[in-house]
Amino acid sequence: MAAARFLSQEEILMKDKSMGQKALSIAIMAAALLLMVASLILDASGSQFAGRGPMLVVGIIAFLFGLYKFPTPQHHRAIVYIIFLFPLLFTFFVTVIIPLILGIGYSFTDWTGVSITKNVGFANYSTMFHDPAFIYSILITFIFVVLNVILINLVGFLLALLCTSAIRGTGFFRAAYFLPNLIGGIVLGYIWQFVFNNVLTKLTNTSVSVLSQSKSAMLAIVIVYIWQYGGYIMLIYITGLTQIPSDVLEAAAIDGANSVQTLFRIKIPMIASTVTICTFLTLTSAFKQFDVNMSLTNGAGSVSNFMGSYLSNGTQMLALNIYNTAIAKNNYAVAQAKAVLFFIILAVVSLIQVRVSNKKEVEL
Fold first, then answer.
1. How far is it between the farthest Cα atoms of the chain?
2. Residue 91 class from Cβ within 10 Å (0-12 exposed, 13-18 middle, 19+ buried)?
3. Which of 65-79, 147-161, 189-203, 227-241 has the lowest mean pLDDT?
4. Residues 6+ apart with CB under 8 A from 126
């Protein structure tokens, strides 16, 4: 009975301590929330109080501390995970989610990049879809994406097969093929511009550069982009190929499978997830192509007749068109509407690609 009474008293003390700790944690979190709300109100009201920024930071830290000290053993591990993930989630929210929401709102206004005077509804979207240059940029972007998704994955996979073969010097080849990916797109574009305008014209003994015509210039952009990105995709394929169990390949060789049969019936099915990743990366990267496009041709190129109009942006892809609309034409509202459409296109196409690729993985 005495032992039972002692345990009961200890439990009561623990319960009282837990209640006190809960009350303290709640008080800290409530004070932190008030501090954050006050700092946001001061900022929204245009106050010049210099301490509103530190108030927000202190409020966030205090709230996380109160959350951490909250005595809930069954959920304590989850709280710790949330606290550790908070900096990443907060950064993602501030740099991606909030700008996306604000951008969608700006697309329905006459935003000048600085101020807004009125809502214009769908006027920016109407202007966008009546612009032949923009429609043409979407068209050539899709063509560019299809070519690059096919060719980069093909080149990357072939290079990966070469660099995982039994030949000598595979380490050198891996480094050499990956090196172009380390060069910035702007620098890369200017280097290849010199090659196309000077070196190639002398080698072919012609006075006309391939960058002077829209079709050949687009082909030049495709070549440069494959040269830059192929080595990166190669490394991912190398990772997938090296993870294939050696006993599976040995069993195939014992069963009499030749190299072609081994490639198509064993290696490719076993790296289906790698193919999905590489396809997704090349798809999204090709859609967002900007730096090489700007530095190599700056979108220049003549199109004699498209939707009844003459175009001077025969190599201007979607990202560059949005940039020029905002910066060169100083039309931020229409550029924002184009960016919203760009986001929708990229999201839909990426989701479709991942879904189709996942089905293929199951089939393989």
1. 107
2. exposed
3. 65-79
4. none
pLDDT per residue over 85-130, tens digit each? Answer: 878 888 888 888 888 888 999 999 998 888 888 899 899 999 999 9
pLDDT on residue 75: 61
Q: Is 114 helix (H, G, I), strand (E, B) or coil?
A: coil
Yes or no: say if 163 and 170 are a contact pair by the CB < 8 Å rule.
yes
Nearest to 336 by CA among 92, 109, 95, 93: 109
Q: What is the CA radius of gyration of the chain?
A: 29
What does the domain layout of the chain look like in residue ranges?
Answer: 2-120, 126-363
Task: Determine how β-strand 303-306 pairs with β-strand 309-311.
Answer: antiparallel
Spatial separation of the C-alpha atoms in residues 127 and 118, rounded to whole Å: 17
Residue with tokens 């600085």: 114
Helix (H, G, I), strand (E, B) or coil at 148: helix
With a cut of 50, say whether residue 1 has pLDDT above it: no
* Tokens 């990443």 found at: 88
- Segment 70-96 shows an average pLDDT of 76
Residue 332 C-alpha from the chain's centroid? 22
Q: What is the DSSP letter of 119?
A: B
What is the four-CA torsion angle of 72, 76, 79, 80, rounded to 10 degrees?
Answer: 150
Residue 304's pLDDT band (boundaries 50, 70, 90)?
confident
The one-character DSSP state at 116 is: -
Question: What is the sign of the dihedral through the CA atoms of 115, 118, 121 and 122?
Answer: negative
* Cα distance between residue 181 and residue 207, in whole Å: 31
In CATH, the architecture of 126-363 is Orthogonal Bundle (1.10)
* Residue 303 · residue 217 · CB < 8 Å: no
Burial code (b: 16+ CB inside 10 Å, e: under 16) for 226-256 equals: bbbbbbbbbbbbbebbeeeeeeeeeebeeee
Average pLDDT over residues 67-80: 68
Q: Which of 356, 336, 312, 2 is nearest to 149 (CA)?
A: 356
